[in-house]
TrEMBL record:
UniProt GO BP: folic acid biosynthetic process
Gene3D superfamilies listed in its UniProt record: 7,8-Dihydro-6-hydroxymethylpterin-pyrophosphokinase HPPK (3.30.70.560), Dihydropteroate synthase-like (3.20.20.20)
Enzyme Commission number(s) of this protein: 2.7.6.3
Key words, A-Z: ATP-binding, Folate biosynthesis, Kinase, Magnesium, Metal-binding, Multifunctional enzyme, Nucleotide-binding, Transferase
Family: In the C-terminal section; belongs to the DHPS family.
An example Gene Ontology CC term for this record: cytoplasm
UniProt protein name: 2-amino-4-hydroxy-6-hydroxymethyldihydropteridine diphosphokinase
Keyword Magnesium belongs to the record: yes
Gene Ontology molecular functions: 2-amino-4-hydroxy-6-hydroxymethyldihydropteridine diphosphokinase activity; ATP binding; dihydropteroate synthase activity; kinase activity; metal ion binding
Cofactor: Mg(2+)
Taxonomic path: Eukaryota, Viridiplantae, Streptophyta, Embryophyta, Tracheophyta
């Protein structure tokens, strides 16, 4: 039994609804000036985006902005794909993605709106399937099948195009969340999931000109190629591992050079302690610690081609650091400690690491925040809710990096369950959004207390062997980025894990 048939057999009530809509709202042929009356106040839509002329990512950002201004509320973003051109192959590589949204625009009004945006962004008729700064196509409109002289929804060829199907499937969950999504599955003979699998499914990613990428520092990062090592640089006097060790600019610069020479691709600067029971410092004090060091690091020749991440939960610190030249925001609170964080990150258009934590560093280890019935499921659900909130504030899923928060509001057994359950966490998130479940996954167990408890190592600096074991487990379990103090030894472990995974 294929997936779609299984879904239908397990949801007979929804099937009856789907059949009713097929009988009542299928549109067969209309003249170009026909008006389709939609009685529901809002319709859920899926719109595909493509660009291969000019600044492709900026074209996407501008198109999203114009869609929002035109009455399309964007609710979900697919991953971002760099793809080889189809049909007309002598042209630049495309960026492709898709969004889900809701609109009160009728289908032909929506088409007219998208065409207007394309024109305003410089699209001309040109050759069919040729280069274009932006291409906006309606993939689905509510539960309706539309066939007029100027609009066909769904287009009959979308199910044979991997560059369309990959982002389309990202917008769905493995669970069918409502009757509209069930209707979308019915548009394909065997359902969207099986149609995607017949094209090759996830096996296509990274092959045949279809790369899933994350934009950072004017690059497109394909995180599937190898695991990235993030080196930790604490600028705090009270860090649990190396507090006060790098409190001068000279010692900090020396440490950065060492980490880069040992294999760090990302340097994570933190000027606010997030150890258990830590007291928050002010925005001003955090900036006073951070900015002078950040400016000196950016002057280093060695930093060329590397990424700088800022470990902060303050939106003002995030804003200033990115303005100075940092590339990524790493927020241990997932936006819960500063209500302005998501809006600021959305405007900055930078990658955002959303970590799972309950409470704040001073309360995260209290008894209430340590209660889990199923830690992998609950972490996945709570982390997904933060990502959904960020998306609704304008942070696309294609800029997200997920961190389940090892050591933050977790007991020793919870940390172990997470390390052993990374695939489960992805799967639980994938029930609601396959796109979000495919985001890069960051794991940071370095020198954490649970390693000391298990290995009998009271001193944090004695926990490097345990860290290497935890990092090995994480990489083999699907982690894409590992955050560590001891870069050299862990970089070797990562290389070995990547080599085994390649085999």
């Amino acid at each position: 039994m294929n997936i779609f048939k299984h879904l239908l057999s397990s949801q007979s009530a929804r099937t009856r609804v789907c059949t009713s809509y097929r009988a009542s709202f299928s549109f067969f042929h209309f003249s170009s000036d026909a008006s389709i009356q939609v009685h529901s106040p809002e319709q859920e839509v899926v719109i595909a985006l493509g660009s291969n002329v000019g600044d492709r990512l900026n074209n996407f950002n501008e198109a999203l902005t114009q869609m929002k201004k035109s009455g399309i509320e964007i609710t979900r973003h697919a991953c971002l794909y760099e793809t080889e051109p189809a049909y007309v192959t002598d042209q630049p590589l495309f960026l492709n993605s898709a969004i889900r949204g809701v609109t009160k625009l009728g289908p032909h009004e929506l088409l007219s709106t998208l065409k207007k945006i394309e024109k305003e962004m410089g699209r001309t008729k040109g050759i069919r399937y040729g280069p274009r700064p932006i291409d906006l196509d309606i993939l689905f409109y509510g539960k309706y099948r539309i066939n007029s002289e100027i609009l066909t929804v769904p287009h009959e060829r979308i199910f044979e195009r991997p560059f369309v199907m990959a982002p389309l499937v990202d917008l769905l969950g493995s669970d069918i969340d409502d009757d509209t999504v069930l209707r979308w599955h019915s548009f394909s003979k065997n359902g969207l999931f099986e149609s995607w699998e017949k094209l090759g499914g996830e096996a296509l990613i990274g092959k045949d000109g279809l790369r899933r990428v994350l934009p950072v520092n004017n690059q497109l990062w394909d995180w599937s190629k190898r695991t990235s090592v993030m080196g930790i640089l604490n600028l705090t006097p009270d860090s649990f591992s190396d507090g006060g060790k790098f409190d001068s600019v000279g010692s900090t610069i020396s440490r950065v050079k060492t980490m880069i020479s040992e294999g760090a691709e990302i340097i994570d600067l933190g000027a606010q302690s997030t150890r258990p029971m830590a007291t928050k410092i002010s925005v001003e004090e955090e900036l006073d610690r951070l900015i002078p060091v950040l400016e000196k690091i950016l002057e280093l020749p060695e930093i060329e081609g590397k990424l700088l991440s800022i470990d902060t939960f303050y939106s003002e610190v995030a804003l200033e650091a990115i303005k100075k030249g940092a590339h990524i925001i790493n927020d241990v609170s997932g936006g819960t400690l500063d209500s302005d964080m998501f809006r600021v990150v959305a405007n900055l258009s930078v990658p955002y690491i959303a970590m799972h934590m309950r409470g704040d560093p001073s309360t995260m280890q209290n008894s209430e925040n340590l209660k889990y019935d199923d830690v992998c499921k609950e972490v996945a659900d709570e982390l997904y809710e933060r990502v959904r909130t960020a998306e609704l504030c304008g942070v696309p899923a294609w800029r997200m990096i997920l961190d389940p928060g090892i050591g933050f509001s977790k007991k020793t057994e919870d940390n172990l369950d997470i390390l052993m359950g990374l695939k489960r966490i992805r799967s639980e998130i994938g029930r609601k959004s396959l796109g979000v479940s495919r985001a890069p996954l960051l794991i940071g167990p370095s020198r954490k207390r649970f390693l000391g408890e298990i290995c009998g190592r009271a001193s944090a600096v004695e926990r490097d062997p345990g860290t290497i074991a935890a990092i090995t487990c994480a990489v083999l379990g699907g982690a894409n980025v590992v955050r560590v103090h001891n870069v050299g030894d862990n970089a070797d472990a990562v290389k070995l894990c990547d080599a085994m995974l390649d085999r």
